[in-house]
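Hello,

Our lab assistant flagged a job as stuck in the queue for most of the afternoon. It eventually completed. Since we weren't sure the result was trustworthy after the delay, we are filing this so someone can double-check. Below is the sequence as submitted and the structure that was eventually returned. Let us know if re-running is recommended.
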Amino acid sequence: MFLAAGWIGHVALWAYLLIAFVVLPVFVPLAAIALEPTRRRRAMMAPFALIGTVFAVILFAAMVRGPVGVQLAPYHLSYSIRVPDGLQVVALYVVAVCGPLLMSGYRNVVIFGAVNLVAVIVSPGSPLRVRLRVVRLGGPSQAPRSRCTADSPNPMRNRA
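-- returned structure --
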């Protein structure tokens, strides 16, 4: 039973990271582009799809290189991978995902993008969001490395 549970956990870890780090930064800009009726707005959103694709490849490569991990934290699960220049990767990930939503011609899509951006920036303890966090690893004599972490609500918290 323990072996099966560990295997399922490993599959769930990879499934979550693939969706959060590979699918979303590509899919969200493309979905926003597909939604827009005007060519002008679609053209303005195209760079976000390119940025999202580039960073999806970077994050996928980091996942394959490893290590990938998950930790139980208060109100969320904390998923992590190692990426070079983690702060820049996280910032451009957020730009790629939220940018096209904020540029939409549809008010509700803009509101959704703004709510997501606010959640990423100002609500570090909220159990109702996905956030990205960068932790600097290594000392002054070592080359800078970062760990990119996506936190999601902990499904095991407050269960009766």
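-- support follow-up --
The delay was a queue issue, not a problem with the job. The result is valid. Residues 2-153 form one domain. Confidence is low (pLDDT under 50) at residues 125-148, 152-160.
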